[in-house]
Design a protein that fits this description.
143 residues, alpha/beta, Rossmann fold, 4-stranded parallel β-sheet, 4 strands, 55% helix, 11% strand
């Protein structure tokens, strides 16, 4: 099985949050052959971890361990590079869904998923609104 996963879901594989056990179970019960993620995830992942430090949900040493684990796992992922195609698609998606709440970084995640939608079986996101846009773009999501 091939999947696209956004940062909000990927972080659950490294830090225990709501729905972490659901995601762990999904990975345990399925053979995942490829995981596609946006290059943006590298930035968002680090930002999310540092936010957990600022909000006292994570100690610095634990944060460094999580960041090191993510860096060590980078070879497991197929990064969708943010180039002209992603930027152009993101702009179109903002024009299409901006009135419904699509913001810039989620537009990059959504356009990344759109680029690989014919290659993946599912997209996984922990963001309810992004899931709505994935469905609107005819991308099957894991519920």
């Amino acid at each position: 099985m091939k999947i696209f996963i956004d940062t909000s879901a990927l972080i659950k594989l490294y830090f225990n949050e709501e729905d972490t056990s659901k995601l762990d179970r999904f990975f345990a019960e399925n053979i995942i052959t490829e995981i596609f993620i946006s290059e943006l995830t590298k930035i968002e992942f680090s930002s999310a971890i540092y936010k957990k430090i600022r909000t006292n949900n994570l100690k610095l040493q634990n944060a460094n361990d999580i960041l090191d684990a993510f860096a060590a796992d980078e070879n497991k992922y197929h990064f969708i590079l943010i180039g002209r195609e992603i930027i152009n698609e993101s702009q179109k998606l903002i024009e299409k869904y901006g009135i419904k709440g699509l913001r810039s970084l989620d537009a990059i995640q959504l356009s990344s998923a759109c680029i690989v939608k014919n290659l993946v079986d599912f997209a996984i996101s922990g963001d309810k609104l992004l899931n709505e846009f994935l469905i609107a773009e005819q991308i099957q999501i894991l519920v």
